Amino acid sequence: MMIVSQQWMLSLEILALVFLLGTTFSLASTTKTNKNIKTIFMSPKIELNPGFVSNKVYYDVEFPRGHISLKSFNAELVDEAGNSIPLYQTYLHHWIVIRYHQPKNVTANSQSGIIFLRNNGFCQEDILGQYYGLGSETRRTNTYIPDPYGIEVGNPAEIPKGYVEKWLINVHAIDTRGVDDRVGCIECSCDLYNVTKDENGDALSPNYKGGLQCCPDNSKCKMRKGFLGPKKDLYLKYTVMWINWDVNFMVPVKVYIFDVTDTLKLSDKSNGMSIKHDCKVSVISKYYDLICLDV
Questions:
Q1: DSSP state of 197
Q2: pTM of the model as a whole
Q3: How far apart are CA 76 and CA 54, in angstroms?
Q4: What are phi and psi of 233, to 5 degrees?
Q5: Cα separations (Å) of 216 from 14, 104, 189, 242?
Q6: How many angstroms separate the CA atoms of 90 and 78, rounded?
């Protein structure tokens, strides 16, 4: 499975939009600004008790359909009333948005026959393959793409026969109410979560002191003695600005995500040059998390 690799969201990445010529719980609302359309969606409900972690993948989430141009995408954690959640209460470790094609004859949440559509970045396989997403530092980040440019999606000519285009969202949230060490919890220190094995049941390396493997879904960080608090129902609120595609007036762009730990390797195989990108995104995870604290 290609979605929840432990390496995905743990580094400083640079999102570059390179110009190239050539279901679920819903509170969706839509408005029009000039010719652009802005739609607000809510993810499925995320239930969190104090100190607990939610790291789930939601398939077939609500999203603008058809052949469209994406102009911007923004997301944040909110409560049932739509109020933003402070990071010192619930830390948004990461969120990612991925496009995929699914056979029409399977159930919505089935992974059978799915074709994942990664961005045009250089990292290997599934690493950093999302269209949008990072973590809590993305709040109030301007993602608007000026006219006449836009990210083209939903082109029927690119969807295989018998398939439909859909989107998924992965949300990793850490409730820090009442925890013994808030910074350690959001850095996923293994000793605070009492985790010694990875998601496959294999023992973690003694050198692995913290990271995504130590704060999986439904894990719990070390709490202060005697702390009690209610369960919270949260949602990822995501706002999409888009417009129907018009080949006569729009220029498609592609999304590239670069990783600072990418170790490019060149080799000569079968009289041809082989290029391999090896993005080691987990190397600077601790520093990445610390940067997000004051957002």
A1: B
A2: 0.82
A3: 15
A4: -105, 115
A5: 26, 31, 12, 34
A6: 10
